[in-house]
Write the structure tokens for this entry.
Amino acid sequence: MAIRVGRDSTTAADIPLAGLQVVMGYGNGRFAWTPADWARFPATVARVRIDVNGTDPQACGVLDVESGDATPAQAPAWVKTRKALGAGPHGRTIYTSRSLLAAVDETMKAAGLERVTDYTLWVATLDGTRTLPSMTGVVAVQYAGEAQTGGHYDQSAVYDDAWHPAPVVVPPKPPSWQARALAQARAVVATLEAHQ
């Protein structure tokens, strides 16, 4: 398992592209990214959409549980909705700070939800700490904030290859024999029409 580099920011243009493998952006809220923001990143960069207030479980694979955003109490219903939509645990991720981690786990456990099988975690330390005492169910750690990165973005170590895997660039299929025959027939017709 290779550790991937993930970055997020309220402003997509502030995220450096060099070395970027996973980009995390906002699907809703005050800093919701536009299609142009998402289009800034190459197709080889995996995309993670963050639901800041718990209102878009349809399109976002991460719920942002921190002060001013969703609360730990909202997390179980969001996870259950994502599960009902068919998302696996890697698409039912809770982003939270290390200080709220216990509250998130307690709320989830009270709702009958367990790490790994029902949800995964992306935990913010923002002090350079890249691992936690227990990494069970932790797919990424946001270890560097603006003070460490020197820019208007945060950086994460993405530990789980199955969490928003990088898109695979698939070469286009060669045309079928029917498509090739049709193209040749059109070329013959065009040649005949040109010589009439």
